[in-house]
Design a protein that fits this description.
With about 475 residues, this protein is of the alpha/beta class. It has 3 domains: about 5-130, HUPs (Rossmann fold); about 130-165 and about 205-290, Serine Threonine Protein Phosphatase 5, Tetratricopeptide repeat (Alpha Horseshoe); about 300-480, DNA Cyclobutane Dipyrimidine Photolyase, subunit A, domain 3. The radius of gyration is 24 Å and the shape is globular. It has helices at about 20-25, 50-70, 80-90, 105-120, 150-160, 195-200, 205-220, 225-230, 240-245, 250-260, 265-290, 310-320, 330-340, 345-360, 365-375, 380-390, 405-410, 415-420, 430-435, 440-445, 465-480; strands spanning about 5-10, 30-35, 70-75, 95-100, 125. The protein is built from 21 helices and 5 strands. About 45% of the residues are buried. Strands 3-2-1-4-5 form a 5-stranded parallel β-sheet, with helices on both faces.
C-alpha cells in the first residue's frame, strides 16, 4: 500500500495541481496537508485581509477534497515537526508540493527536502504549480536576470503562453481512516472585531469562486480590457489577483481561458496576457534580488532623503490610510481598499505616487500597509508595484514622473462615478468640481451641501508645492550620487 502526502501552500485547488496530480497517479492513498506556520514567513506573515481569505479558502479546499474522496489535514507548525509527525502516523513514503519563490520559502523548503530525503529516506518532489515560467530558468543572453519587463516578456511569452493546464482528478484516493486535524476555525484567522462585511460581500474565496470569476471575465471582460482596465468606475479588470495569490486558480488556467474565449484574437486579450507577464516578472525579480522585499533595487535610493517620520508625517500617513487626505481620488482608493480588501490598479498607482512623492514617505511604509489590507497581497507583486511607484525599482516610473490625482481623476473617472461611490460626502458635486473641490467656487460647494473642513477635509498637502519638493529631493540624490 503506497501512501503520499501532498503539502498544500498557496495552491489551494484541485485542477492544474501538479503535486496532487503526481500523487494520484503514483500512489494508492493521498493525504492533503496544510501547515499553519505564519512565523516562518518572518515579517511578511499574512496580514489581516489575507488571513480572512485564507480561512474561507481552506474551508472550501477541505470540502472539495472531501467530495473527491480524500482529507485535508490541518496542523500547526513548525512545518518540519508537522510533516514528520504525519509521515510517521501515516507511513507515507512520498511527499509532494508545488514550489514557492519568496526568500523565506526557498530557504525553508530546501532544508526540508534535504532532511526528509536524506534522513528519513522519503521520496520528496516539488513541482511548478504557480508560474508559467520559473525564474531560475530565465536569463539574458549574458546570463543575468532581467531588470526590464519588455525584453523579459519577449523572451518567455511564446513558450509560457503555450502551457497546457492539467485537469482536476476525477477522484482523490484518501486514507482509510481520517487523521487528527485542526478545525479551520481554531486557527483564529477571522477578525475578532468584525470589519470584514465588505470583503464577504465582494469575494467568494475558493476554487469554485475563482473559476466562476475567470469564466465571467473571459466571456464579458476581455474584448474591452485594453480600454476598460483604466476606468475604476467600471468592472473592467479580471479581479483574479487574490485567487492567483492563493493558488485557487493557476496562471496556466487563466491563459487557457483567454485563448479559448471569443475574444482570443483581440487587443484586449493581448494586453491582459501581458499583465499575467508582469506577475511573472515580479517573481523573477524577487527570486533573483531577494533583498528587494525591504531594500530598493536601485541602490542609490538607499540614500534618498525620505521625510522624517515625525508627528507631521505620521499624521499625514494616518490620513492617507484612512482616506481623509482631502484629495478625492486618493481617498476613494484608500476607502475601497479598506472596504473590499482590494483596489483598482490605476488607483493603486495614484495612491502610491501620492504617498512616495507628494508626501515623500518611504515606499516601504506603503508596502506594509497594503500587505495588511489587501486580500491579494503578494510579496513579489507588492514589492514590484511599490518600487515602481517610488522610482527605485526595476522598470520603475522615473522619480520625476509624479501622478497628479486631479488630472488622473479627470482622465479616468471623468464623470466622478468612482469618487461618488467611495466618497459619498462629495456626491452632490458636479464632475467639473469633484476631483478638486478646494478649487470650486463657494456657491457650487454650498449647492452640493459640501463645506470643506467640516463635511470633507481640506487637502493635507499642496499638490504643486509637494511636487516641487519631491523633484528637489530627487535632484539632491542625483548630485550626491554623481
Amino acid at each position: 500500500m503506497s501512501i503520499a502526502i501532498v503539502w498544500f501552500r498557496r495552491d489551494l485547488r484541485l485542477a492544474d495541481q501538479p503535486a496532487l496530480h503526481a500523487a494520484c497517479a503514483r500512489h494508492d492513498q493521498v493525504i492533503g496537508l496544510y501547515v499553519h506556520a505564519p512565523d516562518e514567513e518572518g515579517e511578511w506573515a499574512p496580514g489581516g485581509a489575507q488571513r480572512w481569505w485564507l480561512h474561507h479558502s481552506l474551508t472550501a479546499l477541505e470540502q472539495d477534497l472531501a467530495a473527491a474522496g480524500s482529507q485535508l489535514v490541518i496542523r500547526r507548525g513548525p512545518t518540519a515537526t508537522a510533516l514528520t509527525a504525519l509521515i510517521a502516523e501515516s507511513d507515507a513514503t512520498a511527499l509532494y508540493w508545488n514550489r514557492l519563490y519568496t526568500p523565506a520559502a526557498i530557504e525553508r523548503d530546501g532544508a526540508l527536502k534535504r532532511t526528509l530525503h536524506h534522513d528519513h529516506g522519503l521520496t520528496v518532489e516539488s513541482f511548478n504549480g504557480n508560474l508559467l515560467t520559473e525564474p531560475q530558468h530565465v536569463a539574458t543572453g549574458a546570463g543575468q536576470p532581467y531588470r526590464v519587463f519588455t525584453p523579459f516578456w519577449r523572451r518567455i511569452s511564446a513558450t509560457a503562453l503555450a502551457a497546457t493546464p492539467l485537469a482536476a482528478p476525477q477522484s482523490v484516493p484518501g486514507p482509510r481512516e481520517p487523521f487528527a486535524s485542526e478545525p479551520v476555525d481554531a486557527l483564529g484567522l477571522l477578525p475578532t472585531i468584525r470589519w470584514d462585511d465588505g470583503l464577504a460581500a465582494t469575494w467568494q474565496p475558493g476554487e469554485a469562486g475563482a473559476l466562476a470569476r475567470l469564466r465571467h471575465f473571459a466571456d464579458h471582460g476581455l474584448d474591452g480590457y485594453d480600454g476598460d482596465r483604466d476606468r475604476p468606475a467600471l468592472a473592467g479588470t479580471s479581479a483574479l489577483s487574490p485567487h492567483l495569490h492563493f493558488g485557487e486558480i493557476s496562471p496556466r488556467q487563466v491563459v487557457a481561458a483567454a485563448h479559448g474565449s471569443h475574444a482570443a484574437e483581440s487587443r484586449g486579450t493581448d494586453v491582459f496576457l501581458s499583465e499575467i507577464g508582469w506577475r511573472e516578472f515580479a517573481h523573477h525579480l524577487l527570486y533573483h534580488f531577494p533583498h528587494t522585499a525591504t531594500q530598493p533595487l536601485n541602490e542609490r535610493f538607499r540614500a534618498f532623503p525620505w521625510r522624517d517620520t515625525g508627528a507631521e508625517a505620521a499624521h499625514e500617513v494616518d490620513a492617507w490610510q484612512a482616506g481623509r487626505t482631502g484629495i478625492p481620488l486618493v481617498d476613494a482608493g484608500m476607502r475601497q481598499l479598506w472596504h473590499e480588501g482590494w483596489m483598482h490598479n490605476r488607483i493603486r498607482m495614484v495612491v502610491a505616487s501620492f504617498l512616495t512623492k507628494n508626501l515623500r514617505v518611504n515606499w516601504l511604509e506603503g508596502a506594509r500597509w497594503f500587505w495588511d489590507t489587501l486580500v491579494d497581497a503578494d510579496l513579489a507583486s507588492n514589492t514590484l508595484g511599490w518600487q515602481w511607484a517610488g522610482g527605485c525599482g526595476a522598470d520603475a516610473a522615473p522619480y520625476f514622473r509624479i501622478f497628479n490625482p486631479v488630472r488622473q481623476g479627470e482622465r479616468f473617472d471623468p464623470e466622478g462615478e468612482y469618487v461618488r461611490r467611495w466618497v459619498p460626502e462629495l456626491a452632490g458635486l458636479a464632475a467639473r468640481d469633484i476631483h478638486a473641490p478646494w478649487a470650486a467656487p463657494r456657491a457650487r460647494l454650498a449647492a452640493a451641501d459640501v463645506e470643506l473642513g467640516q463635511d470633507y477635509p481640506e487637502p493635507i498637502i499642496d499638490l504643486s508645492a509637494s511636487r516641487k519638493a519631491a523633484l528637489a529631493a530627487f535632484q539632491q540624490l542625483k548630485e550626491n550620487s554623481s
